[in-house]
């Protein structure tokens, strides 16, 4: 007779992150889905997030803290009472299912076109340099990015206050916390990179100068809603949205890791730089060395086996999964049961299908669960 000892995979065990207790360590990564008509969360979005509440933590799609941070078509905001009330429906639905949810605050900075921003307001950025590449507009399809206005001292204070006010509204709307989007080439990362930050004042020029706005914003938000409900997303070596590599990437992210460690934030969400070669592996290790708090790692993670590797080695404390959550609302259950994953349709990731906005959004079914 043989006895088998089964241990629960680490990914399926509970963990507390800052002020929030999670049922497992599998996080739904933030994903823009462009279903927020008029930039206000709606009933379809409530249903979408409710369906995915078995994730240990949901991080919402990137959400604008201000009109001038709303660079994309149909992304939600959180800077009006109508948007707060819309998001409250989402957080209530997720909590009713036993889930937890953080708002991702995304100021798009120079990634914008005035056809997308409310009232055609100009985007703002560290420097008045248009990002290379095109952006979707519902009126005129793909258009070049417009040139942003460079933030002056008043502008810096105003944008920072918008992050703080949006974080406060997020707590009012029932979110468990907020994640500052300092990745993927949006406003906060635009400050970090000398390609998009050519300022000559205290917010540019050196590693410390370019990191200043990100760190000041994180501290300002943490002061108001608590560091244990404040988190951040970083993406070293990721060139997305016209963010070319530069000499001081490691120094930049080590500085951020150290200062965020001192601040005591809920978690640091790292888009895995190891996907960008040996230098990325080194950066990942350096961030882990200098940030001893909770790290969520993301990028191409698909199996419990890979998750076990990352969690048991201490490389990460949680893992985030993006694209598979689109077509597998019950992703955690499918992994637990060893069930196959469904493929999503990329044509409806950011746009409606022929039958409307629900297509490719709320119409992916859960698998039949065995137990
Ligand atoms: C449809 C889609 C929308 C996304 N939108 C966002 C976003 O709003 N904010 C963000 O930080 N990352 C966004 N991402 C990146 C994902 O969070 C994640 O980093 C990426 O998909 C890699 O993880 P994966 O391999 O598990 O999909 C998006 C990705 C996809 C596929």
UniProtKB/TrEMBL annotation:
<feature type="domain" description="NADH:flavin oxidoreductase/NADH oxidase N-terminal">
    <location>
        <begin position="13"/>
        <end position="341"/>
    </location>
</feature>
<keyword id="KW-0560">Oxidoreductase</keyword>
<dbReference type="GO" id="GO:0005829">
    <property type="term" value="C:cytosol"/>
</dbReference>
<protein>
    <submittedName>
        <fullName>Alkene reductase</fullName>
    </submittedName>
</protein>
<dbReference type="GO" id="GO:0016628">
    <property type="term" value="F:oxidoreductase activity, acting on the CH-CH group of donors, NAD or NADP as acceptor"/>
</dbReference>
<dbReference type="InterPro" id="IPR013785">
    <property type="entry name" value="Aldolase_TIM"/>
</dbReference>
<dbReference type="InterPro" id="IPR045247">
    <property type="entry name" value="Oye-like"/>
</dbReference>
<comment type="similarity">
    <text>Belongs to the NADH:flavin oxidoreductase/NADH oxidase family.</text>
</comment>
<dbReference type="InterPro" id="IPR001155">
    <property type="entry name" value="OxRdtase_FMN_N"/>
</dbReference>
<dbReference type="Pfam" id="PF00724">
    <property type="entry name" value="Oxidored_FMN"/>
</dbReference>
<dbReference type="GO" id="GO:0010181">
    <property type="term" value="F:FMN binding"/>
</dbReference>
């Amino acid at each position: 007779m043989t006895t088998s000892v089964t241990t629960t995979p680490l990914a399926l065990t509970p963990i507390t992150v800052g002020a929030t207790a999670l049922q497992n360590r599998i996080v739904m990564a933030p994903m823009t889905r462009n279903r927020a008509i008029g930039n206000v969360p709606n009933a379809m979005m409530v249903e979408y997030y409710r369906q995915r509440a078995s994730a240990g933590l949901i991080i919402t799609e990137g959400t604008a803290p201000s009109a001038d941070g709303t660079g994309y078509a149909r992304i939600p905001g959180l800077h009006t009472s109508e948007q707060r009330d819309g998001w409250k429906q989402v957080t209530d639905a997720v909590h009713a299912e036993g889930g937890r949810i953080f708002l991702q605050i995304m100021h798009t900075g120079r990634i914008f076109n005035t056809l997308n921003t409310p009232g055609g307001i100009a985007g703002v950025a560290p420097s008045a340099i248009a990002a290379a590449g095109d952006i979707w507009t519902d009126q005129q399809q793909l258009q070049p990015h417009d040139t942003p206005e460079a933030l002056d001292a008043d502008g810096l204070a105003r944008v920072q206050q918008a992050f703080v006010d949006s974080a406060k509204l997020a707590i009012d709307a029932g979110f468990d916390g907020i994640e500052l989007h300092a990745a993927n080439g949006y406003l906060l990362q635009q400050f970090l990179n000398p390609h998009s930050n050519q300022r000559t004042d205290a917010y540019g020029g050196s590693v410390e100068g370019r990191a200043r706005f990100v760190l000041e914003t994180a501290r300002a938000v943490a002061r108001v809603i608590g560091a244990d409900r404040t988190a951040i997303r970083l993406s070293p070596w990721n060139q997305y949205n016209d963010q070319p590599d530069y000499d001081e990437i490691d120094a930049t992210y080590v500085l951020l890791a150290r200062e965020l460690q001192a601040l005591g934030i809920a978690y640091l969400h790292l888009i895995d730089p190891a996907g960008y070669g040996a230098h990325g592996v080194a950066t990942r290790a350096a961030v882990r060395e200098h940030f001893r708090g909770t790290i969520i790692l993301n990028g191409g993670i698909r199996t419990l086996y890979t998750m076990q590797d990352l969690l048991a080695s201490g490389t990460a404390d949680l893992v985030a999964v993006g694209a598979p959550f689109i077509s597998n609302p019950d992703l955690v259950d499918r992994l637990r049961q060893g069930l196959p994953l469904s493929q999503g349709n990329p044509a409806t990731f950011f746009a409606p299908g022929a039958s409307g906005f629900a297509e490719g959004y709320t119409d992916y079914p859960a698998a039949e669960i065995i137990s």
